[in-house]
Amino acid sequence: MEIPFNEKTMLDETWWDQLVSVAYLDTEQSRLGRLFNTLMVLSLLIALGLSVIFFVTALLANQWVYLTRALFPLAFIPISVLGIVLCKRGLLRQVVIFYVWAGFIGVGLTVFLYGGINSAGWILFLWPVMVIGMLTQPRYSYL
Predict the structure, then answer these.
(1) Whose CB has fewer CB within 10 Å in the chain, the N or C terminal residue?
(2) Which residue, among 6, 112, 2, 88, has the nearest Cα to 40 in the 3D structure?
(3) 64 CB contacts (<8 Å, ≥6 apart)?
(4) What is the largest CA-CA distance in the chain?
């Protein structure tokens, strides 16, 4: 359940607070929602950074295979934005599960396509495990 919009408190908050804060009646849910939105902003910045690196590398090295490698971080930009929007609408639990499964599938596809067993992308499997371990009960991180 959302707390009714209070215009005075929204004016007192900084842009960061407006971006990551959520309004739930339960303070624990509000804390978890704020943590999830912070992780989504971090994920968005990492995805943007990786995409820029792959694009610049493709242009400088004239190797267009790097453009296909930019698809993975580019796919997580709308997922992160959607996660922030849905979390603010009160769907924290559902959006955490969606984000974690999207992360597992995305990282799995990336590892499969770019190197297989020798891929350096295996370390990326830690991100969805950490997200689900922080935002749900720790036993769910054993998926």
Answers:
(1) N
(2) 88
(3) 58
(4) 55
